[in-house]
Amino acid sequence: MSAPARRPLVLPDFPWDSLAGPRARALSHPDGIVDLSVGTPVDEVAPIVRQALCAAAAVPGYPTTHGTPELRAAVVAAMGRRYGIGAVDPTAVLPTIGSKELIASLPSLLGVAAGDLVVVPELAYPTYEVAARLAGADVIRTDGLTALGPRTPAVIFVNSPANPTGRVLGVDHLRKVVAYARERGSIVVSDECYLGLVWTGAAHSILHPEVCDGDPTGLLAVHSLSKTSNLASYRAGFVAGDPALVAELLGVRKHAGLMVPYPVQAAMIAALTDDEHERQQRDRYRDRREVLLTALRGAGFTVEHSEAGLYLWATRGEPARATVDRLAELGILVAPGDFYGPAGSAHVRVGLTAPDERIAAAAIRLR
Ligand SMILES: Cc1ncc(COP(=O)(O)O)c(C=O)c1O
């Protein structure tokens, strides 16, 4: 018998389909559903960003894959101002069509292949595993690198502040990851899309001088404007870090036509240059978080981590699906922790991304 003509990819099931039952129950609540399951922004895009998009809407030519020099300069300036990251080389910045597509394709684009190893956090945004599978690589879920034994990972994904737990990795932890990766030649991909949404303490970029000593070798920081500037609908992100790795990504992405539309690049410049709309958005989420945190604790939940990001990681010490069902009876839809890994089987992820009125309704129902 001849070899198969192709081997279809085997990817994890799309977990959200399993929420159809609880969603239907929550929708039947007389005062309507409070959907805290998906972290999609609900507040309008800031006028300053919309105006920049519109002002660039007549430009007909292809955008450059590398992004305009103005956009890359705006990224470098914002990373310095907002996150204390000094001296990012503007050539080592690359705009992306949101960060999800970059994360999903990154191992493949960097030549990771079957037999290679990709490390993802124990509880993780599902796209890291998808990225490894798309490349045909093996995946290990762990937060402790000693668990890896003698195998050298090709890519280590870290995510601080984390989805789904809101956990922030301290400088010491991040330094250990960098040192481990440098000794072995592994690439660290640090997903930092919640770095601008910190509620208690401080969170550091992998490119922060206290973490990497000012040396970006082997490091890639992945950023998104979806949450901090409500630009999920625009698809606006970027990656920055090791100039050689960014050049490699740029080369492949040029061939593949993976470029950010020019008007979106213009909108990104406005969003990265104006810190005021970003602060206002952070304040909205801070208020919503306070309301939900108090309500969940009052209803007997324990909330763990959650010191940053857009989710509360909550448990009642029962299976996640039982909590999801119980909350659906109140018309509140949340995500079961098992979506993010087996270690989440007794937790639920409660999103802060709902309008104030819906957050208030959830708090009343939890009483
Ligand atoms: C941890 C994490 N990374 C990346 C993304 C993707 O964001 P986007 O593609 O909108 O930039 C998300 C979205 O929820 C996320 O939670």
Automatic annotation (TrEMBL):
It is an enzyme of class 2 (transferase). Keywords: Aminotransferase, Transferase. SUPFAM superfamilies: PLP-dependent transferases. Its cofactor is pyridoxal 5'-phosphate. GO terms for molecular function: succinyldiaminopimelate transaminase activity. It comes from the Bacteria. The keyword Transferase applies. Residues 33-363 form the Aminotransferase class I/classII large domain. Signal peptide: none annotated. InterPro entries: Aminotransferase_I/II_large, LL-DAP_aminotransferase, OxyQ, PyrdxlP-dep_Trfase, PyrdxlP-dep_Trfase_major, PyrdxlP-dep_Trfase_small. Its EC number is 2.6.1.17. PANTHER family: AMINO ACID AMINOTRANSFERASE, L-GLUTAMINE--4-(METHYLSULFANYL)-2-OXOBUTANOATE AMINOTRANSFERASE. This is Succinyldiaminopimelate transaminase. It comes from Skermania pinensis. The gene is dapC.
